[in-house]
Amino acid sequence: MKLYDLSLSGNCYKVRLFAALAGIPLEIAGVDFLAGEHKKPPLTDLNPWGEIPILVDEAVVLRDSQAILVYLAAKYAGENWFPSDPLGQASVVQWLSTAANEIQNGPCAARLVDKFGYAIDKAQTLQRSARILPLIESHLAKHQWLALERPTIADCAVFPYLALAPEGGISLADYPNIQQWISRIKALPGFLAMPGV
């Protein structure tokens, strides 16, 4: 099983992190992002959207980190990481949506501006972050984990861009529950770091 990957990408990292925590072996294929390798064949043959990560598992080819997390968990990691019951799945998927929306357009986008020079409205990324971080902080004041009172792919999906928020100029100093949750994830057996985390 191969993951087309960029070491500095939080979206790629969430897949590597989950695979490490769940003991799923991955062959990592580094992508030359600066040279635009992801925007041309053979990678666009695998993902016409021209984005990474891309997972190839025999005949299965998947794009999008959230979809890859669901696939890996359901196929290889069992009920603990992604349950089969409808309510359990919904409890996890709502956080995958948060990762792909509020966090992607808030802390993640702020990091893209500061670290990589993307032409994104930084003030807007900070406004979005200022809305979502207190909501997550409040949730984590009552729960050790994002969903189901245990680590799931929800935590793997949300973790990277919250842990990397300072690289976008977003301090976590006012969010002690988020900081403690980050520490709990780092303490999980098999935890895998990335630059900045």
General description of the model:
This protein starts with a strand and ends in an 11-residue tail after the last helix. The chain is built from seven helices and four strands. By secondary structure, it is of the alpha+beta class. The longest helix is centred in the middle third of the chain and has 31 residues, at 86-116. A hairpin with a 2-residue loop joins β3 (54-57) and β4. The protein folds into two domains: 2-77, Glutaredoxin; 86-186, Glutathione S-transferase Yfyf (Class Pi), Chain A, domain 2 (Up-down Bundle), CATH 1.20.1050. Strands 2-1-3-4 form a four-stranded mixed beta sheet, with helices on one face. The model has no long low-confidence stretch (mean pLDDT 97). α1 crosses α6 and α4 packs antiparallel against α5 (122-142). The protein has helices at 10-22, 43-46, 65-77, 86-116, 122-142, 153-163, 176-186; strands at 2-5, 27-30, 54-57, 60-63. Helices cover 53% and strands 8% of the residues.
CA-atom Rg in angstroms: 16 Å
Quote the average pLDDT: 97
Assess the beta-strand content as a share of residues: 5-15%
So what's the oligomer here? Answer: single chain
Largest sheet: 4 strands, mixed
Instruction: Determine the fraction of residues in helical runs and give it as a percent range.
Output: 40-55%
CATH level 1 name of the largest domain: Mainly Alpha
Shape: globular
The CATH topology label of the largest domain is: Glutathione S-transferase Yfyf (Class Pi), Chain A, domain 2
CATH architecture of the largest domain: Up-down Bundle
DSSP helical segment count: 7
What are the segments in which pLDDT stays under 50 over at least 5 consecutive residues? none
Strand order of the largest sheet: 2-1-3-4
Straight-line distance between termini = 25 Å
Q: What is the succession of H and E elements?
A: EHEHEEHHHHH
